[in-house]
Design brief:
Its EC number is 1.5.99.12. The protein is an alpha+beta fold. It contains 13 helices and 19 strands. A 5-stranded antiparallel β-sheet has the order 12-14-11-15-13. A 4-stranded mixed β-sheet has the order 1-2-4-3, with no helix packed on it. α10 packs antiparallel against α11.
């Protein structure tokens, strides 16, 4: 028999906002492979008329208790990791993995065959889920086949309210071994967005494009020197970032060592089309794996200081292209005073890169911006780095979006009523309800999303 642990805890605001939250009284299945089959366990022991609910918990972040099940069962998805992955090279290469496998393990195994997935999350020490990049679309687009395939369009990094995906195969592409990693700064938001939109539409382009907002950061370029080399050291040393709102564009080109001259020329040509501050051009050359696993280095440092497993009150917004300047003027000009609590991502995405069969809701424009406030709160702090301050700041941003009619859609939102969820989905609410009714009519799965109530009929 496997381990079935019963715990009890209080639901505190600090816990709700972290990825380590727990709900009062819930069961935790440490190894579902070693216990009775889950359907038999759920219906045989508790019965269809019980209050039992089931949630899946991966090795990752969960906002506002979304991976929890009040008085129910939480499944440790990492226990679904098989003995080994199966990489299938060939004309259309792919890899078979379990739903509990980590992206970092998939990377290392794939690289043995000179292959890698086409799209990545920024952080690889997560169970298989999804992420996005401007070039190869969301990670869900890499899904070739999954158990419960009729549902496979619904859950990836949106809402797993229909089923728990236990195995998947993911398409691959040939992997390069080296990466030219580039950073530049802008002081003009219009130039920053114009260049990003140009890059995501260009034919010969960078392999990775991501933007950041940096507000009132002291010694910014000096901090970059630990990992990057300035193109013009003298000019870079004279650049002042204190008290300024700046916008960083991060770019990469992937290559093999025999193509170094060609790749340098391509980068030179691409950069010549951009309007960044010339003294802020920094470059680095790293291995492909080192670049992809770049966040892990920060994790190690933060863990050593006890600052990794802390509240993360993240806010992820999808902003229509036509409203991004109004949004930036108020949020980056008035609401935020610094960016010391965590990175703020800003980059455009082509709507055509997203599959409309997934359950995510997108703005009604062909191009929209992902704006992600990835804050970390210092436990017990009552200052600007404390949880209450960050949550209040998030509410101010959302209130502004509503008052200014920005047309924002939240990515992985937290709502507490079905009416709010219905407003979020808009005209797609009916199909969302139909899928739930077809595949989980008793509303057993994913109660932490607070979209559907257990034992309430879905018409």
């Amino acid at each position: 028999m496997g381990t079935l642990v019963l715990t009890k805890s209080t639901m505190q605001p600090e816990i709700l906002a972290t990825g380590t939250d727990t709900s009062p009284w819930r069961f935790y299945i440490q190894n579902p492979f070693l216990i009775l089959p889950l359907p038999l366990t759920m219906f045989g022991k508790w019965g269809p008329g019980s209050e039992l609910t089931v949630a899946a918990r991966g090795h990752g972040h969960s906002l506002q208790g979304q991976a929890q099940a009040h008085r129910g069962v939480v499944i440790n998805m990492e226990s679904f990791r098989g003995p080994q992955m199966q990489v299938h090279p060939g004309k259309n290469p792919y890899v078979d993995v379990s739903g509990g496998e980590l992206w970092i393990n998939i990377l290392h195994e794939s690289m043995k065959y000179g292959l890698a997935p086409k799209s990545w999350t920024d952080y690889l020490h997560l169970t298989v889920g999804a992420g996005s990049c401007y070039r190869e679309r969301r990670c869900a687009k890499l899904l070739r086949e999954a158990e419960c395939r009729p549902l496979s369009w619904c859950p990836w990094r949106t809402w797993s309210v229909w089923h728990n995906n236990t195995s998947t195969n993911i398409s691959r592409a040939s992997a390069q071994k080296l990466v030219k990693w580039i950073r530049v700064l802008y002081s003009d938001f219009s130039a920053f967005t114009r260049d990003q939109e140009h890059l995501i539409s260009a034919e010969n382009r960078f392999d990775y494009v991501e933007g950041f907002v940096i507000i009132n950061r002291t010694g910014l370029l000096n901090n970059w020197r630990s990992s990057f080399n300035p193109e013009d050291p003298v000019q870079a040393s004279q650049f002042e970032s204190d008290g300024r709102t700046l916008f960083c564009l991060e770019l990469t080109k992937h290559f093999n060592s025999d193509k170094i001259d060609m790749i340098n020329k391509e980068i030179e040509n691409l950069l010549s089309e951009l309007s960044y501050i010339s003294s802020t051009l920094f470059m680095s050359e790293v291995s492909y794996i080192e670049f992809l696993d770049r966040v892990h280095g920060s994790e190690v440092k933060l863990r050593s200081k006890g600052l990794w497993e802390v509240p993360h009150p993240w806010l992820n917004l999808l902003i229509p292209r036509s409203k991004i300047h109004n949004f930036a003027q108020e949020v980056f000009g008035n609401i935020l005073t610094d960016t010391s609590n965590g990175p703020i991502l800003v980059y455009p995405v082509n709507k055509s890169k997203w599959d409309n069969r997934t359950s995510i809701v997108l703005p009604d424009e062909d191009v929209f911006y992902l704006v992600a406030f990835l804050s970390s709160a210092v436990p017990s702090s009552t200052g600007t780095d404390g949880l209450e301050h960050i949550l209040t700041q998030n509410r101010r941003i959302l209130d502004f979006c509503e008052a200014a009619e920005i047309g924002v859609k939240q990515y992985l939102p937290h709502y507490t009523t079905q009416k709010e969820w219905q407003a979020h989905f808009g005209p797609r609410w009916e199909i969302f309800m139909q899928r739930k009714s077809a595949y989980d009519p008793l509303a057993i799965l994913a109660p932490g999303q607070k979209i559907f109530q257990k034992a309430i009929s879905i018409l």
